[in-house]
Fold:
Amino acid sequence: MSERLQILIPESLAARLEQAAQRARTTKSAFVREAIERALEQGGPVEPDPVAALGGLCAPTADIGRMIEEIEEGRS
Structure:
C-alpha cells in the first residue's frame, strides 16, 4: 500500500527537479522516491566534512608563518 505525501517546494527547486527527472528519463515522483531511499540508506542528510569544505574553497595558501605575518600586517 502506498501513502500520499504532499510537499511544497520553491519554483527554482521544482524546475531543477523537472530537469533532473528528464535527464534520468523518469517521473518526478519516481526521482524523489529514489532520492529519499538513497538518503535514508545513508542515514539521512549528511553534514559536510568541514575539512573537505575548506579544501574546496580554492583559497590562497602559504606557509603558516607567512600567513601569520600577513594577518599581523593587516591589523596595523
Remarks:
- The chain has a mean pLDDT of 88.
- Residues 11-75 form one domain.
- The chain is about 60% helix and 0% strand.
